[in-house]
Amino acid sequence: HVQLVESGGGSVQAGGSLRLSCAASAHSIITYCTGWFRQAPGKEREGVASIDRNTGGTAYVDSVKGRFTISQDKAKNMLYLQMNSLEPEDTAVYYCAADQFAFGLSPQYNYWGQGTQVTVS
Questions:
Q1: pLDDT tens digits, residue range 67-83?
Q2: Is 91 exposed, middle or buried (0-12, 13-18, 19+ CB in 10 A)?
């Protein structure tokens, strides 16, 4: 079992940047497949980025490719999402997720954080 806590959300103008952080308790974050998801009001939860612990491969939803970067810091047991060139359409609550299995951008992960709000105006 792993607990996840996100931070780093906030309000930013279009074109700006934010870095979201996800702190993992217990086991090392790199022993899990991890992902970032977002949910805007009235919309379904959407996979944004993921890392496969087995291959190290990353995946991104088309709308954020070239703007967002997912990464892990083994020493700090952290997961990050660097978000650049933010657009109003990126406004949502962002969640980090983890699981032993590689679900990629599908929201089937067992472990979820509480979410952090990102607002782009």
A1: 999 999 888 889 999 99
A2: middle
